[in-house]
Amino acid sequence: MAKEIIKQIKLQIKAGAANPAPPIGPALGQAGVNIMAFCKEFNAATAKAGGDVLPTVITVYKDKSFTFITKQPPASNLLKKVANIASGSGEANKKKVAKITKAQLLEATKLKLADLNTTDLERASRIMAGTARQMGIEIAE
């Protein structure tokens, strides 16, 4: 018989850098999870991710055990890394901050494809292109 789930916690945690400080500690403490056990397990599992911010879903069971799933970094973080910028534009429709090629867009899309609601690379690249536009990043032909 499957364990009874009592809570699902969604956090964005820097890969390999989980510690008991907020927001991780309080979120796990309220659910009764061993915070240090989670931090050690998460850091070991994500050490190779290179410091990216990873959306994480932590499932807490009735016996206070847990499992977690990490997803790909947010689309905006992938695009910032590809465009080599610190942040997006405050006025995306007026002020452009970077220009990327379609090849660079496809590279970011391939990384994010598993978390998107499509399996078609062309449609996924259109989703990522929309995010890029909202950040003030132009896509060159």
**Mean pLDDT metric:** 87
Percentage of β-strand residues: 15-25%
Radius of gyration: 18 Å
- Largest beta sheet, briefly? 3 strands, antiparallel
| Overall SS class | alpha+beta
Strand order of the largest sheet: 1-2-3
Helix content: 25-40%
Shape: elongated
Number of helices: 5
Compressed to H and E, one letter per element, the order equals EHHEEHEHHE
Q: Return residue spans where pLDDT drops below 50 for at least 5 consecutive residues.
A: none
Number of strands: 5
Terminal CA distance: 54 Å
- Assembly state here? single chain
In words, what does this structure look like?
- With 141 residues, the protein is an alpha+beta fold.
- It has five helices and five strands.
- It has helices at 24-31, 35-46, 75-83, 102-112, 121-135; strands at residues 5-14, 53-61, 66-70, 98-101, 137-140.
- It has a three-stranded antiparallel beta sheet with strand order 1-2-3, with helices on one face. A two-stranded parallel sheet has the order 4-5.
Task: Give a concise summary.
This protein has 141 residues and is of the alpha+beta class. It has helices at residues 24-31, 35-46, 75-83, 102-112, 121-135; strands spanning 5-14, 53-61, 66-70, 98-101, 137-140.
